[in-house]
Design a protein that fits this description.
five-stranded mixed β-sheet, six-stranded mixed β-sheet, Immunoglobulin-like, transmembrane, about 20% helix, signal, about 280 residues, about 40% strand, Ig-like_dom_sf, 2 domains, alpha+beta, transmembrane helix, single chain
Length: about 280
């Protein structure tokens, strides 16, 4: 037989179960998939699940919202569902956002068509039920629209002369996720080779120090992300500084020679004109 103490414990435990558990039951909203990825121009469907604390009667509102680019701005409504199957889509998403709710499965689907990079952001699903506003009333997920890198632009900054320091930059204007760049170099014979000593490479910027004739060759940059890649290349010709000085001197010498010749021509013309006038007077 049960002792008086055991009977008291069991009675207390049963009372606790009957009184506490109903109070702990509350609304639960969740999005099973924490992030979505889709190629640019494709369609995507995001799913939100909800479990009400009690049967839904008259009022039930489910809303999908988009987080802004600026954290200080408020979220923007994508679409709202009401219990009478009425769906209201925001004007900015009209024609390409579709909202469905299955009350039997306790599930909502937001479908976006022909997504662009502007759709890369977090989306939130929230549920409003009168007298059932405790628990988890909203959940969010992230959408990443994949865009291959645009053809990168390669440029040289600095003087391509012996013993100078230069930087070679490579950047794609578009790409989602953000492209990762990598440089490779080839000799003038088009053979792969290592970079010169002290070379650094970061965020598409290749820094070359104390360049020389051996630095001359081909440089290829590849811009890559999860969906594709693109590249650009350039030819580096390192020359002695004296060659540039000689070229400058040659240009200046040519200009001076032209001025001298022009002065001689003018002088000759003036003398001839003076002689003709003298002959006419005689």
């Amino acid at each position: 037989m049960l002792t008086q103490m055991q009977l008291t414990w069991r009675t207390s435990g049963l009372f606790l179960i009957l009184t506490v558990l109903p109070c702990c039951r509350c609304l639960q909203v969740s999005i099973p998939q924490q992030d979505y990825r889709v190629a640019n121009g494709e369609d995507i469907s995001m799913i939100c699940s909800f479990i009400p604390a009690r049967p839904v009667s008259d009022i039930f509102i489910l809303k999908w919202e988009a987080y802004p680019d600026n954290p200080d701005d408020s979220v923007k409504t994508v679409g709202t569902y009401f219990l009478n199957n009425q769906v209201d889509i925001a004007p900015t998403y009209e024609g390409r956002a579709f909202l469905e709710v299955d009350m039997d499965k306790k599930e909502s689907t937001l479908r976006l068509t022909k997504v662009t990079m502007e759709d890369s952001r977090r989306f939130q699903c929230s549920v409003t039920i009168p007298n059932d506003d405790e628990g988890v009333t909203a959940a969010s997920t992230s959408l990443l629209v994949l865009v291959p890198p645009s053809p990168p632009v390669c440029t040289i900054q600095g003087r391509t002369e012996y013993w100078q320091n230069i930087t070679i930059t490579c950047k794609s204007e578009e790409g989602s996720p953000e492209p990762v760049t990598e440089w490779k170099t080839f000799s003038v014979e088009n053979a792969p080779r290592p970079f010169p000593p002290k070379t650094t490479q970061k965020d598409g910027v290749l820094s070359l120090f104390n360049i020389s004739r051996e630095t001359s060759g081909f440089f290829v940059c590849t811009s890559t992300n999860d969906i594709g890649s693109n590249n650009c290349n350039l030819t580096l010709a390192v020359v002695p500084a004296s060659m540039n000085i000689a070229s400058t001197v040659g240009i200046i010498g040519g200009v001076l020679a032209g001025i001298v010749v022009l002065a001689i021509i003018i002088c000759c013309c003036c003398r001839r004109r003076a002689k003709n006038q003298k002959d006419a007077e005689g």
